[in-house]
Amino acid sequence: MFIDILFLSLLQAVTEFFPVSSSGHLILFHKFLGTNSLLDNLAFDVVLHGGSLLAIIIFFYKDIINISKTLFSDIKNRSLKNSSALIIFVAIIPAGLVGYFFEDFIDSIRDPKVVVFALIFGAVLFLIADKYFKRKKDFSNINFSDGIFIGLLQCLSFIPGISRSGITIFAGMGRGLSKIDAARFSFIMATPLLFGAFIKKITDIPSADNYYILLLGFIFTAFFSFFAVKFLMNILSKLGLKVFAYYRIILAIIIIIFFL
Length: 260
Description:
The chain is an all-alpha fold. The chain has helices spanning 2-17, 22-33, 42-59, 61-77, 84-101, 103-108, 112-132, 144-154, 164-174, 179-202, 211-238, 242-259. The chain is built from twelve helices and no strands.
C-alpha cells in the first residue's frame, strides 16, 4: 500500500504539471494497476489535488502575494484595466463554463483513440511553438486579450490527451510570452481551478477511512509537485517544449500498441 501511495502521488505530481497528459498515463496505469486500486478512490483523488494546490501556492507565493496586493491597490485607485488578478479571473471563465455545461460530453470522449490523437496533436503544437514563437513581452505585460486567448485555448484541455499545462503554455507563448512566463501564468491560473476541483470533489465524499493513507498521499503529492514544477521550469529554460513533444509521441505509440 505504501508503494502505491508513493507511486500515485508521483504520478499526480508529474502529470498535473508536465505537459504530457494525465489522461494518457491513467489509461496505461488503470490497465496495469487494475480498477480496484487507489486510482478509483475518490477521497484519495481529492487529497492528490489538494497536494498539487499546496505546491503551487508555495512555489509561486511571491507572485500570488504581489497579484493580491496589486488587486487591492487597483480597487482602491479604481484602476482595474490591467489588473493581473482580473485577467486571471477572465482567463478561467471559459474553461469553467465548458466544464460545468459539457461535463457529460467530456466524460463520453474519454477513449484511447481520442487520447492518441490529442497526444500527437499536442506534440505538433509544441514543436511549432518552440521553433516559431518569439518572446515579445514578459509576465507584467499580460493584458485582457492575452487572458481571453489563453482561457479559450485552455478549453481544449478537456479533450483527454491535450494537457492543461501544455495548451496554456503554448497559448501564452503564442501571445509573445517566454516559455517561463507562459508557464508562470499557466500555473498561477491553475490555482483557482485546482481549488475549485478540490472543493467540488471533497463535498462528494460521504466519509473517508484510513486517514493515514490520505495524509501520506497529500504530503507526498505536495512534495513531488513542488519539485515537478521546479524541474519543469529548468527544462523549459534549457530545452523548451520539444522534449515533451517527443515524449508525447512515444506515449501515443505505447497506447496504440496496448489498446488499439
